[in-house]
Amino acid sequence: MDSSSKVALIGAGLMGHGLALVHAIAGHPVKMTDISESQLKIGMDLAASALETMVSAGSIARADVAPILARITPATTLADAVSDADFIIEAVVENRDVKRTVYAEIEAAAPATALIASNTSYLDVFPLVPASLQTRFIITHWYTPPYIIDLVDIAGGPETDPAHLTTMRDHYRAIGKKPVLFDRFTPGYVANRLQAAMTLEITRMLDEGWATPEAIDDSIKYGLALRMATMGALMKADFTGLDMTRRSLSNKMYTPPEVKGYSETLEGLIADGRMGVMSGSGYFDYGDMKPDELFRNRDIGLLKLKAAVETVEKETPLSPKG
Which residue segment(s) compose the domain that 78 sits in? Predict the structure, then answer.
């Protein structure tokens, strides 16, 4: 797969528009579609806005914006989007019936040689995939915003041709991403499973009143995140000393939180209409700041942090492979 390969993006939502941008920046011609023309327009607008943010942060040159956007073409039907695609990415809602319908439409309209990928996280989609697509169907799971966060989880199904997995791993490495290849689908992969465990503990602390949202996020930002950004978790353990890890594991005073399936704190916020950034409040209040301003500020902060971490890794490597 090279930059001339044609990409079809099914879904123009928060992940879809970002994935269209990832591939357009890499030089691919992209067709993006959505079930709603209004959502498709929103997706195109979000892609343009994200590029402006990247220009502001100095990660994209102003002269590159128009050519990148010109590579993204809105398609009003799935059939049009996939008709001449070399690579098809499904980024629709995590719903079995919706995905099954999308895969059937892809089977009917896509070239017989097209490689198909799903952005699924926890849902095992392989049982939903038509038999004729199984050998060329893979998972490429991204993290938002994908044009900044470089991690890509890659996994195949029971019948996936392993060559497709290595092709995608090598391609994403070549464009500066950080693919992690799994030998089978594992719900949540690594990053989301770790986040899920952290969410259980956070939920317990909030529901039982142990800590405020401010205390929790400050502890993560100024304690965990800074160290993990340069060392990860296991290298950090090496620096601390594995004997300390052993003692921590043997400490019987700690009881992991139970999986309740809900949070009283979360349910209360949602009942009050505090749905997050898009509604102006969630765990925190965002005042008069509009969602587009908040997303822009988030992206600029991430881009600056990413650049700083890359500089640290280059100038002060912590392992032989740098």
Answer: 7-181
